[in-house]
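Input (structure):
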């Protein structure tokens, strides 16, 4: 039996408990970055066997389908990644109670679910838990992840968690109460950017561009703007001012956005997202009888 969690991904066995889009984004990043052998990754879900077979075919991971094999994989793994929806979390995590060893690292990406709730559900106050909030851009190794650690996470396990999320993008450690802010900014963030892109493409089409041209120009504009901020190190505000000639067309556009309270809208949206994540966490606690 393994007594301590390895600090290198290449030596660790990982078990994905929940096999949806976020789990796939993470495991794909790990496999494509060749940080671990696919055979070190086992994946299970509730019922969708076709999904597991698809992941096996695509990435070479080990699908786990029977309940006996599930128990075995969960008990044996060095790291268990919780990747189910918040509504399914309480029941799923409780089933780990009789299976987990005290040194196994639990990594949760579940929105709103606190470290303290996870430990209550597992029934062990000192279980090492990492609470992470990644985003779907992890699929192409451009993810942005906020991470917080329970006090029992060892330095080796911290290193391991960083290695996992750095393999699929960048990671930033935050105090746990700020994970909801991370959810608001970057966890859900890709959706706001896609929403903006949908609106830009739509507007271009309304002005007479073909759908293909509107999409191509929009995609490259967003990609270029993000890369300008990233590679020049200049503030987005400064870069915006460089596009905005006095009394020119951009200024006219920004004034129109301000008439619709653009900044206030984004502010309120991100604050509401963070609040909703907290609500989901509270609902899990309530369902589990913890409040
Ligand atoms: N999508 C995103 O952009 C992000 C999501 N998250 C978080 O990631 C989590 C997963 O989201 P996402 O990947 O989109 O969800 P999906 O709906 O794509 O996947 C959920 C997975 O959980 C499985 N599952 C449900 N109940 C159980 C159970 N009792 N035992 C084992 N597996 C179970 C489902 O299996 P089956 O299909 O068989 O029912 C499915 O494989 C959420 O908690 C979300 O908050 C975090 C950051 C970003
Ligand atoms: O919408 C959600 O609840 C999840 C959390 C972050 C992104 N998607």
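Output (sequence):
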């Amino acid at each position: 039996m393994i007594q301590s969690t390895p600090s290198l991904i290449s030596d660790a066995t990982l078990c994905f408990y929940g096999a949806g889009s976020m789990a796939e984004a993470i495991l794909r990043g790990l496999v494509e970055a060749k940080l671990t052998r696919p055979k070190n990754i086992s994946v299970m879900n509730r019922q969708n066997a076709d999904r597991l077979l698809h992941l096996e075919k695509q990435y070479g991971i080990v699908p786990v389908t029977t309940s006996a094999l599930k128990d075995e994989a969960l008990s044996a793994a060095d790291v268990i990644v919780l990747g189910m929806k918040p509504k399914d979390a309480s029941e799923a995590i409780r089933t780990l109670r009789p299976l987990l060893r005290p040194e196994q690292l639990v990594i949760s990406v579940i929105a709103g679910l606190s470290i303290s709730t996870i430990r209550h559900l597992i029934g062990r106050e000192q279980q090492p838990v990492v609470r992470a909030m990644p985003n779907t851009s992890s699929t192409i190794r451009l993810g942005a992840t906020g991470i917080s650690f329970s006090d029992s996470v060892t330095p080796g396990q911290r290193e391991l968690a960083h290695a996992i999320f750095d393999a699929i993008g960048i990671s930033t450690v935050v105090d746990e109460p700020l994970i909801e802010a991370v959810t608001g900014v970057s966890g859900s963030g890709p959706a706001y950017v896609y929403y903006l892109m949908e609106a830009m493409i739509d507007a271009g089409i309304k002005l007479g561009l073909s759908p293909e041209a509107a999409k191509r120009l929009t995609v490259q504009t967003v990609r270029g703007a993000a890369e300008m901020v990233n590679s020049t190190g200049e503030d987005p505000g400064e870069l915006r001012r460089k596009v905005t000639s006095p009394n020119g067309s951009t200024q006219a556009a920004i004034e129109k956005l301000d008439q619709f309270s653009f900044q206030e809208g984004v502010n309120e949206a991100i604050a509401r997202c963070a609040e909703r994540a907290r609500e989901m966490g509270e609902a899990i606690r309530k369902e589990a009888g913890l409040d």
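Notes: The mean pLDDT is 95. The longest helix spans residues 262-287.
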